[in-house]
Amino acid sequence: MSEALWSSVDDYLAGLLAPADAMLDSALQSAAAAGLPEIQVSPLQGKLLHLIARIRGARRILEIGTLAGYSTIWLARALPADGQLITLEAESKHAGVARANIERAGLSGVVEIRIGRAIEALPRLAAEGAGPFDLVFIDADKPGTPDYFTWALKLTHAGSIIIVDNVVREGAVAAPAADDASARAMRRVTEMMAADPRVEATAIQTVGVKGYDGFALAVVRGNTGRSP
After folding, report:
1. 88 vs 187: CA distance, rounded Å
2. How far apart are CA 39 and CA 9, in angstroms?
3. In sequence order, what are the residues at sequence separation of 6 or more whose Cβ sits closer than 8 angstroms to the Cβ of residue 130?
4. Is the pTM of this model over 0.85?
5. Measured between alpha carbons, how far is 222 from 228 in angstroms, rounded to an integer?
6. Sheet containing 60-64, strands listed edge to edge, beginning at the edge strand earlier in sequence
7. Which of the four, 1, 12, 41, 115, has the lowest number of CB atoms within 10 Å?
8. Per-run averaged pLDDT (10 residues), the chain, 228 residues
């Protein structure tokens, strides 16, 4: 098995199940033109996020890590007309690219981009009484993920879904090196999910055009301090 094979299968499946889309393709092109890192979710992963949001019937979504807005568009398209998605982005350059992509996709009415470090923005959301959110997607700087998960629990309610991307780190999560802060953070957040009685969680390894990685998915059971 090779990454070339994984990618060819991803391309085949995406061609059938997540085919070319002008707005999404434009978002990828604008990200590349602006020199943003190519770390967005794959088309099939974006479609999965979209379907999870639809299955949940999400009306309010929180995204931690916007980049160029590719996953934001996938998630926002799952919202009803009166829904809302708040997305947090630390880099103003990234946020500018994302804002243009979201406007081009006709989603400015349901998406709010907040610029600044997520660890500072999340307490402000809580202080404002934002949420509760029905779905939280965490895909930002990896060392901060345990803190983001803690805040996600404070901003959700029973039945909410929390998705954490990039938890496998090419297998490093099972035995992170001392100098691999990202893998150690993903190991920590996985252990937090396992130990916290407020959530029930699983994790899935993935291969494809994004290489070898995976994501964790948790359903909030309750006792978060929020009511449904």
Report:
1. 23
2. 19
3. 86, 155
4. yes
5. 9
6. 111-115, 84-89, 60-64, 133-138, 156-165, 211-220, 199-208
7. 1
8. 91 96 96 95 97 98 98 98 97 97 97 97 96 96 98 97 97 95 98 97 96 97 56
